Design the sequence.
């Protein structure tokens, strides 16, 4: 079967790879010049089932209201974005009820665990290099109150089978010695030994190479503008370079899935949630950390990536705007200094922003659309790196007409 995959980010590339491995003829279309150059470019680098909790949580609406208009708020809703997200926002509010939060978190966690197992197999099969760190993540707390509420969240994870241990400050330093300089400033942490981390861009590009070796053609520099259809089927994707025909199509355009989906009458609840990262060069730094630290107080995570440090975080609802904002960039630089006061300051800092494709319930959309041969693999929000291998594998199984190795009912477009 000739399958056309729309989008060469983490999700589209993983889907294309698994489709090719199953023996299909695969074409991937992307407007950029290489794979992974949009949201998958410089994300937080965490492979983190332990962060499956949906953002639509009890307490989130109050936080958004409290932080409204504050330029340095961890989650910032801009007034100009409000008219364009009313429907999405009302659905988000409905998902903040405790029982919805728990169900959504559990659904995403199952996919995350499935995905981590798929990623491990993939890395072993293909010998992929992507600056993967030794396993483990510490979530760090600065005051006893937030530590208590984190312990409640970790209880949910433990109940769902995720291994984690509460740590005193000395325990944090024992697991990650680079935290020694701030030992007296922290209340403790929770260690998730099975979480991981690595460079999503390196992974995407290495996987694209393997896919190419399996026969996948990548059509870069192709802007998708619309579709041709016949009765209940899509027959071709229209691009600025002409039409690309196929027998099946997989829409994996991140936040832009919503805009292109509209051309087919689909109303996809995916809204861009902007985030920022900095990548700091730290070659030869003796005190460099080994594993990622997520700082609850600062709402940032710091991840070692080879001889660099990646710091990511913050959320901003501002439509499709990706311009850098100096206040929000500075929040990340300050966050890094708060965790590692001795980090080498002479290193070059690269600033970046990207659009997390967020659904109101935090679950990605993985399934067949109401067009019989159009499949959706989108809406992976803040967890697309963690969910990529599993989502690609499950989607390839679905397109082939096989029963996916994970139940996709929770991710169905009709849910
Ligand atoms: C600041 C930040 C931190 C993050 N941290 C983490 C993390 O630590 N762990 C984690 O698991 N996830 C993280 N994420 C989330 C993760 O990066 C995303 O979920 C993931 O990158 C989404 O992948 P995607 O393939 O769906 O989208 P994308 O990577 O955006 O891919 C979509 C592709 O579609 C193409 N495209 C779009 N429109 C068109 C068009 N009209 N024509 C042709 N091509 C088009 C784009 O060029 C792009 O290549 C983070 C995200 C951000 C922003």
Sequence:
């Amino acid at each position: 079967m000739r399958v056309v995959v729309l989008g060469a980010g983490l999700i589209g590339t993983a889907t294309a790879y698994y489709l090719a491995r199953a023996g299909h003829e695969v074409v991937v279309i992307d407007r950029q010049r290489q794979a992974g150059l949009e949201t998958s470019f410089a994300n937080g680098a965490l492979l983190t089932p332990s962060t499956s909790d949906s953002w639509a949580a009890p307490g989130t609406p109050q936080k958004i209201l409290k932080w409204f208009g504050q330029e340095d708020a961890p989650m910032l809703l801009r007034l100009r974005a409000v008219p364009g997200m009313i429907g999405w926002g009302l659905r988000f509010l409905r998902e903040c009820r405790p029982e919805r939060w728990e169900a959504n978190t559990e659904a995403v966690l199952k996919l995350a665990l499935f995905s981590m197992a798929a990623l491990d197999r993939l890395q072993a099969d293909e010998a992929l290099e992507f600056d993967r760190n030794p396993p483990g993540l510490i979530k760090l707390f600065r005051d006893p109150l937030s530590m208590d509420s984190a312990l409640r969240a970790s209880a949910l994870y433990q109940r769902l089978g995720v291994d984690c241990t509460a740590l005193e400050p000395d325990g944090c330093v024992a697991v990650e010695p680079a935290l020694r300089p701030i030992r007296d400033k922290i209340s403790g942490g929770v260690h998730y030994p099975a979480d991981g981390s690595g460079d999503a861009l390196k992974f995407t590009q290495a996987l694209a190479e393997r896919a190419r070796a399996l026969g996948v053609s990548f059509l870069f520099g192709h802007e998708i503008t619309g579709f041709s259809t016949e009765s209940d089927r899509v027959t071709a994707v229209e691009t600025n370079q002409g039409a690309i025909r196929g027998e099946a199509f997989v829409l994996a355009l991140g936040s832009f899935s919503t805009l292109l989906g509209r051309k087919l009458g689909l109303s996809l609840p995916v809204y861009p949630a902007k985030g920022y990262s900095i990548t700091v060069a730290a070659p030869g730094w003796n005190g460099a950390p080994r594993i990622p630290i997520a700082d609850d107080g600062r709402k940032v995570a710091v991840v070692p990536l080879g001889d660099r440090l990646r710091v990511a975080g913050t959320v901003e609802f501002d439509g499709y705007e990706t311009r850098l904002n100096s206040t929000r960039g500075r929040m990340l630089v300050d966050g890094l200094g708060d965790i590692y006061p001795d980090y080498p300051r002479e290193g070059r800092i690269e600033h970046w922003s990207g659009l997390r494709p967020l659904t109101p319930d935090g679950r990605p959309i993985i399934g067949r659309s109401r067009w019989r041969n159009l499949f959706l693999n989108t809406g992976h929000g803040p967890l697309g790196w963690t969910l990529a291998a599993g989502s690609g594998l499950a989607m390839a199984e679905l397109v082939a007409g096989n029963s996916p190795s994970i139940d996709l009912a929770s991710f169905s477009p009709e849910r």
